Amino acid sequence: MTRYFATCARGLEPLLARELASLNAQQVEVGRGGVAFAGERSLLYRCCLWLRTAIRVLQPILEADVHSPDELYDAVRSLDWSRWMTPEQTLAVDCNVRDSALTHSQYAARRVKDAICDQFRERTGRRPSVDTQQPMIALNLHVAKNHAILSLDGSWVSLHKRGYRPIQTIAPLNEALAAGLLLQVAWDGSTPLVDPLCGSGTFPIEGAWIALNRAPGLTRKWFPFQAWRDFDRPVWNALRDEARTAMAKKLSVPLVGSDVRQDVVDLAQNNARAAGVGHLIQFTTNDVRQARPPCETPGVVMCNPPYGERIGEEKELASLYRCISAVARKYWPRWKWVIFTGNPRLAKLVDLPVIRKTPFFNGSLECHLWEFQA
Ligand SMILES: C[S@@+](CC[C@H](N)C(=O)[O-])C[C@H]1O[C@@H](n2cnc3c(N)ncnc32)[C@H](O)[C@@H]1O
Fold first, then answer.
1. Ligand 1, residues 260, 287, 322, 324: which to mutate, most atoms within 8 A of Cβ?
2. CA 108 → CA 73, 75, 102, distances in Å?
3. Ligand 1 in contact with 173 (CB < 6 A)?
4. Could you tell me if the CB of 216 is within 6 A of ligand 1?
5. Domain boundaries, the chain
6. Would you say the CB of residue 358 lies under 6 angstroms from ligand 1?
7. Sequence-ordered strand ranges (E) for the chain
8. What's the chain's average pLDDT?
9. Among the four 112, 210, 249, 369, which has the fewest Cβ within 10 Å?
């Protein structure tokens, strides 16, 4: 069995742990910003295909206390790199450092690369070249309090980049976070889902993928592990076939997205089409004040209204939050309203019974998911 570590945005760890358990991961342990677990190699493939809330899936191969770039170099060079790669393969190193004697992440990454290349040059006369776009061996170096963990990175390009959202709008939600928030409220596709401030459409699109049981990594053309020495192509192909077969084609409930801005709705529609679910989501241009339930069966309204980072904006937004609350009360009885916001003062203007409030990080900003009963 191999030990792995899947990283995620802070707050998502318990949800990621649940996803891992459902993939039959062993020894699942929630950490800060990620979850440690163990399993066979095929589990790594499964994780890259199926995890909705993870950012990357790492296989730690070295742990060492390092107090200088030279100590890091020596530690990396002490490994026998021919175990994992050949000098003909390409390589890239991503690094983050925190509270350590090593302060420059780019320099630390360079020392790792130098150590590997020097070892190959000395032993074979050849050395791997660097490819940061599509490396065959992607490495992740994490140094905190002078403790370094070097890992093989199974995904390199973050797993939240599903490939359906090429253009960024104002403040789109990270796809992995949006999926995690839907999992947090246990939305599983059996009740209607509406986002009346949908922006680029992340909630309805991630919702459609959850409801269809669509593996988020299925559209990804390439993962670094496909170039690893132990890559098992038949197993990978079988897992992809299994994922395709597991996917439903239709939704049993309405999925709706609307926004006051026509250009934003157009964008959401394009994103949904790129995600293969354009025909399954009803998009309209509408002010949230005019939003009405799409059917009699109650479901979930999930949104992240603007929360104003500049002074002055908050006053205007106060009226928006009050209106949301009034509309929910008047027109959406028995629906659950779920609001993700970084501004607790605005959230408190929503005059509905609070079921639960959970913290999540949106980048470096602490936000909360507020669950209300309309
Ligand atoms: C923070 S963004 C939502 C981002 C979205 N979750 C995404 O992933 O792209 C807030 C959205 O609320 C929309 N909005 C602001 N006021 C609105 C209103 N009165 N009615 C409907 N939408 C509104 C904005 O146009 C913007 O797209």
1. 260
2. 9, 12, 7
3. yes
4. no
5. 2-153, 175-214+249-373
6. no
7. 2-7, 26-31, 34-39, 56-65, 90-98, 129-130, 137-144, 147-153, 193-195, 255-259, 282-285, 300-303, 336-341, 354-362, 365-373
8. 95
9. 249
Q: Which CATH architecture has domain 175-214+249-373?
A: 3-Layer(aba) Sandwich (3.40)
Pick the residue with more confidence: 247 or 163?
247
What does the pLDDT average to over 79-108? 95
CATH number of 2-153: 3.30.2130.30
Burial of 99 (0-12, 13-18, 19+ CB in 10 A): exposed
pTM for this entry: 0.95
**Helix, strand, coil percent content, the chain, rounded in steps of 5:** 35, 25, 40
288 lines ligand 1 (CB under 6 A): yes
Residue 237 predicted with pLDDT over 90? yes
